[in-house]
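EI: anyone free to look at a 330-residue chain?
SC: sure, send it
EI:
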Amino acid sequence: MTSLPTLNEQAKCYDNTRISAYKTCPRSYFIRHILGWRPLGTGIALIFGSSWHDAQDIVWGYSKKFSREDLAELASMSFNKTWEENGLPLNIPLESEGYYAPRTPNIAREMLYNYCISRERMLKEAEVIAIEQPFAVPIPDMPGHWYIGRLDKVVDYNAQRLVLEHKTTTAYATIGNFRSDWVDSWFMSAQVKGYQFGGGLYYGNVNGVWVDGALVHRKVHDAFKLVPISHNFTLLKEWIEGTKAWIKQISEEEETFKREGKLIPGLFKRNDESCFGKYGACPFIDICRSMDDPSKLDEAPSGFVEEHWEPFSILGLEKLVAETGESNGS
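SC: here you go
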């Protein structure tokens, strides 16, 4: 019997965030994921999204134990806890509300009550298989390289096994509440393809990924949309080959930098077309403007902190190490 590859902390791990960062700009990837620099502070949108995810863990984990009202209240408390732990005020002064809105705890509370109403039938009928489940997939023909991620929810519903991915957005439309470009973007999302593939390996036949969208708006607090996506084998195979090619390219550049100890011409090139995007300027734009090789600095510049991405602690991959070890021993 052929033994399975074993995941360990020496493995080279790549998730959708890392691969997308490299696709967008190799130099930005280098600064964030090789040097480990990140801007001080976390954006409000990211904190709101993290808080919403934690609230959803309560909603889906305890939906059969509490009434709709109590469930929403417990979820709101979870949201507030994450929000405050990230340094944001629970009681926002009126004069500061414009800075935060629509991403505020009060709006989140209204959204959670309406979410429990909107999803009541699904919450009652679905069987929750896993919450915040990490996964790791060995990359074919690349020993020691793994594609990793974490599934928000895995549920059995209407005779289907589904991966649920909670997403919040401010992409409002007067007709249908959600902008069509936001909805359509998920059908091409590499993250969704990766989650269908990874989820399928862990839980057998996954019928698809349902993006569970929640609109964040000043006045509309009851807009939610399920975007069901299921890719056929041909598209998933294309995703696997494409992902493998990107990981190989990233890994080769990482090894070159490790060997050279500096940026040489052509290594982790800048993509000048990505300095400004839909979320504004790249956080590393001033670094790129002022130096050709950031690795020459002894420490992160002012306004940044060195914080390397640790997938084993962030994604909770430790339990997968035990699982792959047990598989090899069986």
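EI: The radius of gyration is 21 Å.
SC: 👍
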